[in-house]
Amino acid sequence: MTVTDVIGGSRGRGSAAPWRNWAGNVTARPARTVAPASTEELAAAVRAAAADGLTVKAAGTGHSFTAAAATDGLLIRPERLTGIRRIDRAAGTVTVAAGTPLKDLNRALSAHGLSLTNMGDIMEQTVSGAASTGTHGTGRDSASIAAQITALELVTADGSVLRCSVGENAEVFAGARLGLGALGVVSELTFAVEPEFLLTAREEPMPFDEVTDRFGELAAENEHFEFYWFPHTGNCNTKRNNRSQGPAAPPGRVSGWIEDELLSNGVFQVACAVGRAVPAAIPGIAKVSSRALSARTYTDIPYKVFTSPRRVRFVEMEYALPRAAAIEALRELKALVERSNFRISFPVEVRTAPGDDIALSTASGRDTVYVAVHMYRGTPYQGYFGAVERIMTAHEGRPHWGKLHTRDAAYLAEVYPRFGEFTALRDRLDPERRFANGYLRQVLGE
Question: Cα separations (Å) of 143 from 176, 226, 230, 307, 362?
Fold first, then answer.
């Protein structure tokens, strides 16, 4: 296989078509694209880009709202670098190609009677894209996608391949589990897995004042607790997921479709479109929407409980707060909406995570509460997001790397104690900034 084979023909193309992310707010115009099917093809593409003086970025499925994957150089596409490579039941691990979508990994693991311990609520992302930007779910004891990685393979700026784990290239492993694409291109990941288990989900409405007053108790008593507050109302919807001995009792086909598709996607899409056209209608719609989802309990395998279909497109900002600051920040956010002219059709999502040891993890070194705000795609969001961001940064918030924010390297160096450790590793692995782009210059500096 020659370099020409990798970057020519059906596997790559010059004068590539524009690339857009899922939300449609980021567009990139790469000089060429490549879709390698192996680590060897990926390494050859990186070497060829270096020879031609091109920067290199890997794009997943575009679920980041930031320009983390944007490039005017070589864009690496994931669609052929997919599939499970090894399952080691004795070690409790699975090794998977970096471009594999989480939904495919979840289904393949389930077919083998295995599961990740925790996951986010969207499973369209590639495994490497999700890990590299800090995708997470909610958990009292179990953390992000990146925190479940036990080993990885990284193609660096000179086209060499590093295999990294706690026992091999440990200093690179410490940063590359959540590397923002700044250290190289991940070609495969090894995750810790466990025998598939059952989760019982209990969803029920709860007033904002009650859920915030009881937040510490609810987070401590449940393995996975989260809630959604509906702006312009005092209403929340809570979700508690806990392991169960069974038996499985998934939502009924009709009732599940009504909750997850008709109300959460179909009716919500219409409500958002009406709200965009007539903003004054949003508070009234919010009051109806916040009462539309009724209490329910069901038991199923993990990915069918953790994840939900998300067909209504939006833009999002999310901040990770120190656990002790979260409730005060939420109350400030509620007061902001009440005194402003903002009209917010999307609920505010609140989740938790334990502290971890990953340098650029939003939960690095501290127990964390995540607060995520959304706006319907095509709706002006800058004023609302900017006001929310001022609240979050006043509480030492850390922005999600894949979601909209305005923070720069100077701010991030203050809220990440190990920020300098990561940038020093970047200087060593990519001194010529082969993997740089505008977003990395913003958040990591030059």
Answer: 17, 14, 26, 15, 11
